[in-house]
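Hey, I'm writing a tutorial for new members on how sequence and structure tokens pair up, and I'd like a real worked example in the thread rather than a made-up one. If someone can provide the structure for the chain below, I'll link this post from the tutorial.
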Amino acid sequence: MKTTTTTRPSGHRAPGSLTAGLLAASLCLFATAAPSARAAASFTAAKETVRDRTTTTTTNTAPAITQQPASATITAGQAATFTIAANGAAPLSYQWHSSPNGATWSNVANNTTCSGATTATLKITNAPVALNNYKYRCLVANALGSITSATVTLAVNPPPPPPTITQQPANATINASDNVSITLAATSNTALSYQWQYSTNNGSTWSNAPDADPFCNVTSNRLVLIGVDASRNGMKLRCLVSNAAGGQVTSNTVTLTVKPVATPPEITAHPANATIGGLFPMNKGTASFSVTATGNPAPASYQWERSTNDGATWIKITDDTYHAGATKPGLALTNLGISATNKVGNLYRCVVTSPGGTITSGAALLLLPGMTGAKVTAVKARYDGKHRDMVWPVIYHEYSCAITVDKAGPVTYYWLEEHGMKKMDSKTIHFNQAGTQTVKHQRSMPEQAEITGILRPKTGAQLFVVLPNAISSAMVGSDAPKGPAAPKP
């Protein structure tokens, strides 16, 4: 309903102020005047009447569309909006219709795709390709009538093809504090953009790599990491590749391995002197050496070595009858019978190697039970013959060996009888100056055993000499006995 009010200008008379005289004059004029004069008077009177009164007009109208909706073209997944404007007697109602072909129409209902179905604006979100070429119109109504808008079309183009990755990134392994670059290659029919991402929880969650240390070039196809810390070990990386048409693809996930900076190995426990156990009388003596080393990363290899000349030269040990664990932290010596006594006094050490370098342990001695000292030298004694005890029926076999030193000091020595494997207690002789002293050993056996051949010297005796570090020595001896031979039974 429309109401129009007209107000008389200021100074005019009120509607009821027309006097009877004026009315009478008018009537008179109509009665006496000529027709043309009466018509003019009538017009004048009507005009005066309009000027002098206020009129109110009420108008009711049906809906009228003042703005038609417009067609829209979008890409699948995007949104489109249709809007209409109308006037007319309130209230106005709206109902949007849709049609796949423009022939059959259905009311649009609000759902996950459409909203505003009964308002002046219809919004379609995340439009699927299936809505391509759908028609839309709106019915506007009130109590006085209804009107339908023009029909518009929604064009939904298929999504653009995503980029194609032609070269996937690869895993990388570096040392801590090193730099590394990770590269991929991609193609597209529109411009490409890149965003590298990283994960520190094995790919459970991802974050965009910031353009800050250690990351560089986070929005290019070549990611650079500078001065990578060891804490980044195991970090996952990937790249989101997009094109200008809205397509996107994600690269393969790669792993960054960061190795700690290698440090030289360090020996925390050097080998200690080892004493042969079980040598007497079972001829199955054993001994062992061990070394403990650390490093970053841990030591990768061990190699035991042996010296028979007080460390002047060294021989690599291999696993054999007497050695086991030649390339392990622990070296075991077995089967150390009388035939292996030449190893007594040998020095043993271990060479430890890791990615950070190589280190050699201190040297340790292989000793007989009760034997102490720094340098041990073994020599086969000279056989000097035998004699019979004047009282008892006992035969004495005599051995001797000369010890030569170049400096004054004490020298400890041990005798080992090769027949019967009997070790004598140690003895010490003192050198007041450089020179030579001869030490002797007597081995006794019953005369009857000597005669019957039950016991007789077979290979003689061996002398072990222990010298202080300050003394070197020269030993006099022979592998072949000298002097009278043992009588036959």
